[in-house]
Amino acid sequence: MTKSELIEALSLKQTHLSQKDIDLAIKTILENMAQALEQGERIEIRGFGSFSLHHRPPRKGRNPKTGAAVKLSEKYVPHFKPGKEMRYRINTSAGYQS
Amino acid sequence: MALTKAVIAEKLFDEVGLNKREAKDIVDLFFEEIRSSLEKGQQVKLSGFGNFDLRDKEERPGRNPKTGEEIPITARRVVTFKPGQKLRARVESYAGNSKK
């Protein structure tokens, strides 16, 4: 499912809002989530999961073409931890035992 | 403070002008729709943000960390999140401080 398919699915379920409103709402949700992470703030959605930043220390890398050593500085990467209900539903619907 | 559904709904009220009821419903539907797509075995790709992918894991040996007893970790399906280029670039240079 893509973002536009998600917007379509929501407009079928929320019929009193225009597709334009839903489109804007979803973009606003995602932008607020990205902004929170950008500021180092966690996102906690009960039953869905949480997003946070993980630290990556500086390391020495190599340019794979030339073999030259390059310094890679420390950075942060987004991390998602699925919530309990998410884990359970995905696992059982796939036919695995819980 | 963490970003929660209530805070996101508040933003939709402020920034999009939805009423509180609509804002709450859209936020609930948004996360529910992603979850049910994954539940149907379908990955979710949100361009500019990232992809939620599914992985089927085989059974592997495990251990009860308290008792040391060996117990198998059963086969299962798990969801993983792969952040997109744009989101990675946005958080990469976070200075890191108290807010984490």
Give structural notes:
The complex is a heterodimer of chains A (98) and B (100). By secondary structure, chain A is of the alpha+beta class. Chain A contains three helices and five strands. In chain A, helix 1 (3-13) crosses helix 2 (19-38). Chain A starts with a helix and ends in a 5-residue tail after the last helix. The model of chain A has no long low-confidence stretch (mean pLDDT 94). Chain B is α+β, with helices and mostly antiparallel strands and 100 residues long. Helices cover 39% and strands 27% of the residues of chain B. Chain B contains three helices and five strands; from the N terminus they run ααβββββα. Chain B has a three-stranded antiparallel sheet. In chain B, helix 1 (5-15) crosses helix 2. Chain B is extended and about 55 Å long. The termini of chain B are close together. The mean pLDDT of chain B is 93. Chains A and B meet through helix 1, helix 2, strand 1, strand 2 and strand 5 of A and helix 1, helix 2, strand 1, strand 2 and strand 5 of B.
